[in-house]
Amino acid sequence: MPDQKKSLSTSNSRSKQYKFLIAALLFFIPIVILYGILESTVRSLPTHFSLIQHYIEENGKDIEIAIFGSSQVQHAVNPEYLSTKSINLSSSGQHHNTDFTLLKGLIDRFPNLKGVVFEASYGHFEIPHNSKYYWKNSVFLHYYNVNTFQRKTYPQDKLLFISHPGKFSEALANHFLRDSLPDVYNKYGFDTNQYEGKYRKLKYDSLRVENASVRINNRPETQVLNYNAPYFEEMVAYCRERDLTVFIISPPTYRTYVAARNPDILKRRDSILSKIKNSYDNVYFLNAEQDHDFKLRYFRNENHLNPDGAEVFSKKLDSLFLQTEM
Amino acid sequence: MLFNSFSFGLFLPVVLILYWAIGFKRIRWQNALLLIASYYFYGLWDWRFLGLIVASSLVDYIVGIGIGRSEKSNKKKAFLLMSILWNLGVLFLFKYYNFFAEGFANLFHISAQGYTYQSLNIILPVGLSFYTFQTMSYSIDVYRNRIEPTRDMLNFFCFVSFFPQLVAGPIERARSLLPQFSIERKFDMALAKDGLRQIMWGLFKKMVVADNVALAVNAYYAEPGEHQGLSLLYASVLFFFQIYCDFSGYSDIAIGTAKLFGFKLSKNFNIPYLSRSVSEFWQRWHITLTKWFTDYVYAPIIRSWKRSYFSRTIALFITMALIGLWHGANWTFVFFGVFQAIFMSLERVPIIIKGRSYNLNYFLTKIPLPLTVVYSFALIVTSCIFFRAETFTMAETILFRIFSWSDGRPFTYEIGYRILFVPLLVLLEVFTRKNNHPFEYLEKRFNRPTRWIIYYIFVFILIRYAGPKEEFIYFQF
Fold first, then answer.
1. Is the peptide bond before B170 cis (omega within 30 degrees of 0)?
2. In this structure, which of A182, B67, B135, B384 has its CB flanked by the most CB atoms within 10 Å?
3. Total count of domains within chain A
4. Is residue A59 domain-shared with residue A33, that is, in the same domain?
């Protein structure tokens, strides 16, 4: 009898487990299917990254200059206006550690590479590097096949939608639902319709712009700088060892931004750059932070250019490339 | 492996299916699987940490048996001392060495006299403070004859490393968790379903509330000197919700996960923002830690001294300072505890009216709840400024700017409409406060289709509105 009781209790427990398993599967399967649809739709969207991926596949062998940086560089350099075959691999929030990993991961695909552009904007050295949770790690892995995770990767690391649901939901909504001001990318992945921003909202009224608040990071972070500065030097040394010409740029900023800068941060940045200048040959600088050619109408906000400003800046960068023997 | 990671989403079902496939009659096999899974879960952070957890388990396992076998009290004491020295030694070495060495050097002006101290460059093993407290409490309880020492090594190792609560609690007592490894754990459908619901609620708190709110807090706390008082007050209130949702979210996921395996863990949070006093706050916030310190620090001090308001106050200050220090090797954490101790001691001042003794806590229960909540919440948020600030100077700047209502950059919500998740959380928790978590209420009130619709809405919110992934704050403790 006790044996019978035992087996009855075991089978009872088993049936409860199966019931639970089926209920759980019924609940989760629609979620997995829906996610699959979302993921595949996101992958089919023409984005800045997918166009760059395409460009690399088509023109990788001919690329002579690779440009790295944050959103300031992303929106300041339109390769369309560069006479040397170039690729702009910068993106918003991208820091030197990601730039360096991308460069090392892509260098073999650019056999004709002669020059590299790095960003050294105001305060750049006193902002911490991208963390291991940087959402674009999945994007770089999927589109460029470069591992920026700072660890071994797993299949789920290639999932795009889950890496930043907010961004990708917005991208899906923009693509399928809203048709005002869609992103218009050229073949280099540069958004030629990126005019929307604070200054347009202020109708480019210089008085309102002057009175508007300035978003600027003025917090001194000397510990961060102590890590970032040698890291940057290592990037420059890596390029010079491979005989690559290095261009260090700082894109234009509007005068309200220039006025709000912390002189100590600026001094520290400039001393790092002058040390690099004295230590390495074939390193060139283009600091357009206070370039008066950039009028209000060239900006989206205090430290980002619009496509018109990008045209002017790209042409200036092009002249530098042409003057330089690479 | 983070609870809110894809890896955990794969790890959990695999371990769960294997666990129940083994069958509840084979407890030892189930325990062996749990131990392997727990070590795998922990080893993914850094496999070198595994040596430490195995050593800690072994020391307290041996100490337990040693105390149990010893007849003489001196021998028992020696074994207990061995456990305490090992556990506190490990904590000191990995967590507090640099803090104390620096403090000592500053106190005696060592560098001015030409000497230096050697700082250690070692990483703090994840969850160290949680599992050392758990193992240490086992040895103390065996010594106090509150529990019998276990001779089952497998069960004891499982108790120390049980993966749902290994890295951030709840800090379980041996008498509550250890016996659960020795009994048959039958699959309980209702418990498992509730576990899943609690996991979902925990994920909502962590991924949607805490991780979004963190953006605003980080933005304002990055440059406190630049922002106006209102913004800093807003950020400080949000920081309270950030740590609450981060930590209680972890506890919910841990408790829910344990339920799936047929285990019951202790409740760790009970809507702390509804506390009427600072004293009550600690009965609702990190309950297992409060109980640990009450049993092993506060109560023994009280027992060894003359019972008076003064001695209780001293014991309270020592306990709260240590609770603060438990959170991290920084004076700001110590002050976080001491600040609360000041108000807790004031709440306990005896007030004699017509020969009867009362205290402020008594009167606070007579005042309408919203008023007392404002009182305790204001004090808790103020103390949280010390918890979040990296230095005293930073905390001072924030407090000064808040209380002087200073001007600064214009106020913005920083996270836009996502701020609404905070009142949503409060509403749901307060409305369903008699339940362990809001989803438990759904089971009682709605039929399955309605419940599933609500769950799907929450899954959508989890996927769509999750903030940028941040590690659980309490992992660093």
1. yes
2. B135
3. 2
4. no
